[in-house]
């Protein structure tokens, strides 16, 4: 019995040490992520959202300023070749079932190729295919994924990189 109690003490102490280290790493990563988000968004538009009137790959007309007058709009800049987008797109797809979402595919090929990708991944959110890069230049987007929250024609939030469902929900809540 004496060996069991001494074995458990070091295990408990090691678990405590690992837990503290894990919490420290999570806090550090969160702070770095927030700092990177802020730094990347400094070159992006703020205040009034640039006009965006276009057709989706499904042939539907879109006016982002008009849409955002009723409810906030999640504007999602992504690409078929983007590694981080593979983690964010499922969140956007889930979110699109209850919220206004519009996505812009950057440098992702033809409309047919983008639609094939969307079908293969079972994504249902609307897509504008930015084949010329005009939209991404107007919005000064240089990083994918980028999520912009627009409310009543105003940019309320910009986030780059991976975003969680809770993070996205909170951004909409405070928009």
Describe the structure.
This protein has 175 residues and is of the alpha/beta class. It has two domains: 1-42; 47-173, Glutaredoxin, CATH 3.40.30.10. 47% of the residues lie in helices and 22% in strands. It has helices at residues 2-41, 64-70, 85-95, 111-121, 134-138, 165-173; strands spanning 47-48, 53-55, 61-63, 73-78, 100-106, 127-130, 146-151, 154-160. Strand 7 and strand 8 (154-160) form a beta hairpin. The longest helix has 40 residues, at 2-41. The protein is elongated and about 65 Å long.
Number of helices: 6
Straight-line distance between termini: 59 Å
Helicity level, as a percent range? 40-55%
Secondary structure category: alpha/beta
Q: What is the CATH fold-level name of the largest domain? A: Glutaredoxin
Let me know the average pLDDT: 87
Strand order of the largest sheet: 1-8-7-4-5-6
**Secondary-structure element order, as H and E?**
HEEEHEHEHEHEEH
Number of strands: 8
Strand-helix topology:
Blueprint: H1 2-41, E1 47-48, E2 53-55, E3 61-63, H2 64-70, E4 73-78, H3 85-95, E5 100-106, H4 111-121, E6 127-130, H5 134-138, E7 146-151, E8 154-160, H6 165-173
Parallel strand pairs: 4-5, 5-6
Antiparallel strand pairs: 1-8, 2-3, 4-7, 7-8
Distinctive features:
alpha/beta, Glutaredoxin, two-stranded antiparallel sheet, 47% helix, elongated
Characterize this entry briefly.
The chain is α/β, with parallel strands linked by helices.
């Amino acid at each position: 019995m004496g060996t069991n109690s001494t074995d458990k003490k070091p295990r408990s102490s090691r678990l405590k040490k690992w837990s503290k280290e894990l919490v420290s790493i999570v806090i550090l990563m969160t702070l770095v992520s927030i700092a990177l988000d802020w730094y990347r968004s400094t070159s992006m538009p703020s205040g009034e959202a640039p006009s965006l009137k276009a057709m989706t790959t499904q042939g539907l007309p879109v006016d982002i300023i008009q849409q955002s007058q009723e409810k906030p709009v999640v504007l999602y800049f992504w690409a078929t070749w983007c590694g981080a987008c593979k983690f964010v797109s499922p969140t956007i797809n889930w979110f699109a079932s209850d919220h206004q979402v519009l996505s812009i595919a950057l440098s992702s090929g033809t409309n047919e190729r983008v639609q094939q990708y969307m079908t293969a991944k079972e994504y249902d959110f609307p897509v504008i295919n930015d084949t010329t890069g005009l939209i991404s230049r107007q919005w000064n987007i240089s990083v994918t994924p980028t999520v912009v929250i627009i409310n009543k024609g105003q940019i309320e939030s910009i986030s780059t990189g991976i975003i969680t469902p809770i993070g996205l929900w909170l951004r909409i809540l405070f928009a």
